[in-house]
Amino acid sequence: MKRHLLRACLAFGLLAAPQVTQAQAQAPRPLVWGDTLPATLDPHAIFDVPSQFVLLNVYDGLYRYQGNPPRLEPWLAESHTVSADGLTWDFTLRAGVKFHDGSVMTAEDVVYSFRRLLTMNRGPASAFTPVLAPERVTATGPLSVRFVLSSAYAPFLSAMPLVAIVNPRAIAPNVANNDWGAAWLAVNSAGSGAYSVVAGNYQTRVSLDIQRFADFFRGWAGNPRPVETVRVRPVMETSTRVLALLRGEIDATDSYLPTDQVERVERNARTRVARDESMRVFTIRMNNMRAPFNNRDARLCLTHAFNYEGFNNVILRGFVVRNAGPNPNNLWGNPPDLAPYAFDLAKAREHCDRARAAGVDFSRPLEIHVQNELEQTVQAAQMFQADLRRVGITLRIVPNTWPGITGSTSRSETTPDMWIHWVSTYFVDPENWVGQMYDSQFHGTWKASSWYSNPEVDRLLRAARTNLSQEERQRLYAEATRLVVADAPDIWVYNTVNLRGLTRRVQGYSFSPVGSGGEIRLMSLTE
Amino acid sequence: MLRYIARRIALALPALFGLVVLTFILSRVIPGDPAATLAGDSATPAQLADIRARYGLDRPIMEQAWVHMRQVLSGDLGNSIFSGRPVAEDIARRLPATLELTFVALLIATCLGIPLGLVAALNHNGPIDHLVRVLSVGGLAVASFWLAIMLQLQFSMEWDVLPLRGRMDVPLGMPARVTGFLLIDTLLAGRGDMFVDALRHLVLPGVTLALPGLATIARFTRSGVLEALQKDYVLYARAAGYGRFRLATIFVLRNAITVTVTQIGLLFGALISGAVAIEAVFDWPGLGTYAVQAILSADYKALLAVTLVVGVIYAVVNVLVDIAQAMIDPRVALQ
């Protein structure tokens, strides 16, 4: 009996003891990236925050955003010109850019990439399809590409970094059922980026291994000790993600570390938190086509009933920046003197009374939809619920999901009374925020889900969209933004400070709102 | 017996048919527009309409249900609307992880639950019996995600003796995939270090998942043994001079365990569906995390396939349990 007990103890000891093999002890530990993976690796099939990791590391675009605030830099293109009417855009490409299979990029590859994107009409295509037909992208020389737009579209260049240039020679043998190789590219890669996908190790949303591409067109002189291998291992649960970072099992969390975990991560000797002001506005939407939100005083009543300071400084511990309007504070075209609304219940009651005098009925409970898996949306709704009760408004919190809410915003009748979300940076242009949120031509998209309509705002935004003068666009967007803020169609709460937990061995982490600091080629590891 | 087995299988088929129809309708009437998620941020109404038309999402719900039924009956679970990849392939990659975890949990629950139930019954109303009863109630009452986090904090963070998450340490890599069961694949690859690592990663999620099952098995074993102890043959065996240990294992347990065996079979199905929360906390790349991701992204094809696969596993296990019952007690088949 004693012998059995001894064996059992030995077996448990074997299990419990950390196992370090000789190979493990010698090999440098790879960078383990704990951020979310996209549902597909195909850069033309999806357009969300996680997909930017693949876009920035495995692929390249003609232009790329760098730094914070983001600067648009020529990338695969060397330069561009645009005709006076804003319709014809000519890009000159960099010579000698190699794809991961060693073949050299040509203008035809760029044409193929844009035609693939526009024909598949998914994800990033929405930024181009209204103004660009696939056949209007042509090669005018071995290293020159021409785009002819159907109407002038000033944000065209700003949206250029969204499009990955893919290698048609890698895709062609894998096309099935006329799918442009979509099924193959969902789990493989055909890029020229600083890192290439390690074939066979990818599992959708579970694991992705990438390795340094020595022939990357920008070279590696700027980073003498680049990261050789990256293993992306998303961690689903926030608590597990934080614990994994503290143990050193992962080197980086996502960039939305909960604010109540910041101190804990910074207290740990081997971890730190990178804090960077981003361009991601936390917004409470109101359905302006439905009573009581179709009355400006009713909207102002609600706007003054949200406790901005309490939410930003107490619940979120000051790790955010108060944002006065729909555009991030640090974006060009945003009026710098724009004053934010204040939490003032007396003023809220005053506006509510005025609305009631105009016949507005506040007796029905208002519904606010939250994204249940995103705690901040729930916290904001609960705080709002308590304060609205003090002005005689009942708020009902409805748990929902992102697809659940966005799916309902295609019609005003099905759009919730209110809902909460962030507007992230996809391209750095006011068009990404005020342009697509408040021009009535975008009604039916989730970005324009407040169903706001103001002919003067429409006019200004459309003028800004077609005007090529940056100075003039800045003026037009500023003017439109002032009008929108005065009408209070939504409640703008804060601009995000991205919080990414990192192990201290990660050096060279450089944040840009586009991609949230996930550009690995800039990083190195110290042991 | 064969007629009995055929009858049980025939009864399972309409249940599966109902499951396919019901889950399809539920998945399409709950809020959520896959087209909106697929089209991405900034999608225009025209782009949304184009995607709905391309994926048949604009057709009447009954027409979509009919297309789905035809697909399933032809053995095709469809493609994920995001990756465009066959859902069956994704599930085939994920299912072994869940099955491995479930088998380990079942093993833990059985190996500990039966002796605990036996010891508790043999010490009826004694301190050990009370302790086992408290543990059983606690095991059923405790929220598994809470227990999971507590175990992580104690064994991974505080004592640093067991891994926190995943199936294998990242720097160690993975063995060549043969079965998808790491305990088998590591041995086939001749990697003892990987085998031990995979086993270590199974301990915390396995124990967490096993606990409610362990409590159930202990309770059923205890009540079965208590009932058997009242039987005359036990009295005669005792009179014949059998010792306490031999009496319990040879006469009592063998007769008391039939109900427990049925429960173990049913537990298997329950553990697979119960693995969702455990997999999320321990970052276990199985069917549970796949289902959660499908829900959050409104990938209804993936969600339907997961539901169907779990349903089939349930149905198969139920049929096997029925057969096992009939073999243990032939009166069941005659009824």
Summarize this structure as a short list of keywords or feature phrases.
heterodimer; A: 527 residues; alpha+beta; six-stranded mixed β-sheet; four-stranded mixed β-sheet; 30% helix; 19% strand; disordered N terminus; B: 335 residues; mainly alpha; 0% strand
Task: Explain the overall architecture.
Chain A is of the alpha+beta class and 527 residues long. Helix content of chain A is 30%, strand content 19%. In chain A, strand 6 and strand 7 form a beta hairpin. In chain A, helix 10 runs antiparallel to helix 12 and helix 16 packs antiparallel against helix 17. Chain A is globular. In chain A, 52% of the residues are buried. Classes of the chains: A alpha+beta (527), B mainly alpha (335). Chains A and B meet through helix 1, helix 8 and helix 14 of A and helix 2, helix 3, helix 7, helix 9 and helix 12 of B.
Largest sheet of chain B: none
- The beta-strand count of chain B equals 0
**Ends of chain B: how far apart?**
11 Å
Low-confidence stretches of chain B: none
**Got a strand count of chain A?**
18
Q: What count of helical segments of chain B does DSSP give?
A: 15
Percentage of residues in helical conformation of chain B: over 70%
| Percent of residues in β-strands of chain B | under 5%
Oligomer: heterodimer
The radius of gyration of chain B is 24 Å
- Specify the biggest β-sheet of chain A: 6 strands, mixed
Adjacency order of strands in the biggest sheet of chain A = 12-16-11-15-13-14
Reading the helices and strands of chain B in chain order gives HHHHHHHHHHHHHHH
List unreliable stretches of 5+ residues of chain A: 1-12, 17-25
Residue fraction in strands of chain A: 15-25%
Report how far apart the termini of chain A are: 47 Å
Structural shape of chain A: globular
Q: What value does the Rg of chain A take, in angstroms?
A: 25 Å
In helices, the fraction of residues of chain A equals 25-40%
